[in-house]
């Protein structure tokens, strides 16, 4: 399968696109639209909206011996899935699927009882619990497609998405995945069927269930697109595409019509939830165009992510923010900058597998930012042996991304005057020169993003942003 399969589209539908029977109807109609254009489709679905959070809550409840609480969550989920299946399917098909759904929930209940009995929730068992979300949604969607003449064929993602055993954030094994897709999914496409699989989940070569990390269904879509040399990857979600910022913070955010892989990756990494950060890589490696589209407004053109960014008169394409970060200040007046000192500091983070987002150094101190995590006390205790260490949580990173920063002078001045009323802790301009980011307190994020958005997107370049669709924002008298 090394040549491009131009007519193949990998279509990923997020949680809101399969949240209930109506959403699944819309999803089926979108897939039909592609099939009617003689395209082949592989469909990747998330769990129904909020199901992953609820499964995590059930696992956590079982882990602290709250068996009743865990089983109550599972019972509510069972009803939701059965009710949705009943609404979607005709009598005969429902009678066929209902026992399969019940069987999955019986297995989930046994698992939750087991966790409660042992009184311990391991990362491996946690992955197994959350995997039920995508296992169930993909079965229902496949059955719904089958009934609607789309020849839906359910594929258990765990048979194709081969990963290592790093539970909670497993690393996909691309060569093995490509081979499995050729063996198990390609024949279905060749037979005119529409394979439907859950995103986010995979299994080790030994068959133990794993997950790719939160938001990982996008990543699955990219792995399938890359592994099958698809002509395009479509990420269907609940907004019109990649916007100039999170529309939940700025309702007047504009759709970005085209964005480069590099810009999209940077945005995703720095907190724009619309795309999982790892999604871009398999697509870039194989030069597969990625589209972000709205399943509630399928007519909209969405955002096209391509290798090269179009020239843009505005310096930035979008603003992202990432919360729940911690700043660590390492002060060591005597030893700093001496040979091997930075290595000693970074080795401590490495030992605890803690990724660093941003670093700034002065004569006597290093400031680092990391995702808040439960290992911080240990990390700081160990750093305390070679320096004075302080850490402060509830911080956030605001990041402005755009390849055209390079061509604009005085941008830093504009950024910081737009947020001059906010206390800025650390500043960085990435080596890639396509992002500018700074750290602030978590509670200042919304205000900072709104001020920056107002400043930089007041008169946006119409060739890059969908200015015509701008939502007028009510002005207070
Ligand atoms: P899905 O379940 O389809 O994967 P997500 O909730 O993971 O959807 O991602 C879509 C959400 O991402 C949007 O509803 C929006 O609130 C948020 N978002 C954050 N930043 C952006 C951005 N720059 N552009 C578009 N959406 C964004
Ligand atoms: N269902 C998973 C989550 O909520 C994966 C995804 O939706 O992308 O994180
Ligand atoms: Mg998502």
TrEMBL record:
Domain annotation Aspartate/glutamate/uridylate kinase: ranges: 8-294
Pathway connected to this protein: Amino-acid biosynthesis; L-methionine biosynthesis via de novo pathway; L-homoserine from L-aspartate: step 1/3; Amino-acid biosynthesis; L-threonine biosynthesis; L-threonine from L-aspartate: step 1/5; Amino-acid biosynthesis; L-lysine biosynthesis via DAP pathway; (S)-tetrahydrodipicolinate from L-aspartate: step 1/4
Amino acids binding substrate: 52, 134
GO molecular function, one term: aspartate kinase activity
Domain of life of the native organism: Bacteria
UniProt keywords, alphabetically: Amino-acid biosynthesis, ATP-binding, Kinase, Nucleotide-binding, Transferase
Record's catalysed reaction(s): L-aspartate + ATP = 4-phospho-L-aspartate + ADP
Any single biological process term in GO: homoserine biosynthetic process
Enzyme class: transferase
Enzyme Commission designation: 2.7.2.4
GO cellular component, one term: cytosol
Domain Aspartokinase ACT stretches: 398-456
CDD domains: AAK_AK-HSDH-like, ACT_AK-like_2
Binding site for ATP: 12-15, 237-238, 248, 273-274
Pfam families noted in UniProt: AA_kinase, ACT_9
Entry similarity comment: Belongs to the aspartokinase family.
NCBIfam families for this protein: asp_kinases, PRK09084.1
Stated name of the protein: Aspartokinase
Organism from which the protein derives: Edaphobacter dinghuensis
């Amino acid at each position: 399968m090394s040549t491009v399969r131009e007519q193949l589209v990998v279509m990923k539908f997020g949680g809101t696109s399969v949240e209930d029977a109506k959403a699944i109807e819309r999803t089926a109609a979108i897939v039909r639209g592609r099939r009617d254009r003689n395209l082949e489709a592989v469909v990747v679905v998330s769990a129904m909206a909020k199901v992953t959070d609820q499964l995590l809550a059930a696992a956590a409840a079982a882990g602290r011996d709250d068996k009743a609480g865990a089983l109550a969550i599972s019972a509510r989920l069972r009803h939701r899935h059965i009710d949705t299946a009943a609404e979607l399917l005709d009598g005969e098909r429902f009678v066929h699927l209902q026992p399969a759904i019940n069987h999955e929930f019986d297995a989930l209940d046994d698992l939750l009882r087991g966790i409660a009995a042992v009184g311990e929730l391991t990362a491996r068992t946690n992955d197994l619990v959350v995997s039920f979300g995508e296992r169930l949604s993909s079965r229902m969607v496949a059955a719904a497609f089958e009934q609607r003449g789309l020849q839906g064929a359910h594929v258990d993602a765990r048979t194709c998405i081969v990963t290592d055993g790093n539970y909670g954030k497993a690393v996909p094994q691309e060569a093995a995945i490509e081979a499995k897709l050729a063996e198990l999914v390609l024949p279905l496409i060749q037979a005119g069927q529409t394979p439907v699989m859950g995103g986010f989940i995979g299994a080790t070569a030994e068959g133990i269930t794993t997950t790719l990390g939160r938001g990982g269904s996008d990543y699955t879509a990219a792995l399938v697109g890359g592994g099958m040399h698809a002509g395009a990857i479509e990420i269907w979600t609940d907004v019109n595409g990649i916007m100039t910022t999170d529309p939940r913070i700025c309702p007047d955010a504009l759709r970005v019509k085209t964005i480069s892989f590099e810009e999209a990756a940077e945005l995703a990494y720095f907190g724009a939830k619309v795309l999982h950060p790892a999604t871009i890589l398999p697509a870039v490696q194989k030069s597969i165009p990625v589209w972000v589209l709205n399943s509630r407004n399928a007519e909209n053109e969405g955002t096209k992510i391509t290798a090269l960014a179009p020239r843009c008169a505005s310096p930035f394409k979008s603003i992202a923010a990432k919360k729940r970060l911690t700043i660590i200040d390492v002060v060591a007046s005597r030893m700093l900058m001496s040979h091997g000192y930075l290595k000693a500091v970074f080795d401590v983070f490495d030992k605890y597998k803690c990724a660093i987002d941003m670093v700034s150094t002065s004569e006597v101190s290093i400031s680092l930012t990391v995702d808040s995590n439960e290992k911080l006390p240990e990390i700081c205790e160990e750093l305390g042996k070679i320096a004075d260490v302080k850490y402060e949580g509830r911080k956030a990173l605001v990041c402005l991304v755009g390849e055209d920063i390079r061509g604009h002078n005085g941008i830093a001045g504009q950024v910081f005057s737009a947020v001059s009323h906010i206390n800025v802790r650390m500043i960085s301009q990435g080596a890639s020169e396509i992002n500018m980011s700074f750290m602030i307190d978590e509670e200042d994020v919304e205000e900072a993003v709104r001020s920056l958005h107002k400043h930089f997107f007041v008169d946006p370049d119409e060739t890059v942003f969908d200015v015509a669709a701008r939502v007028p924002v009510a002005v207070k008298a």
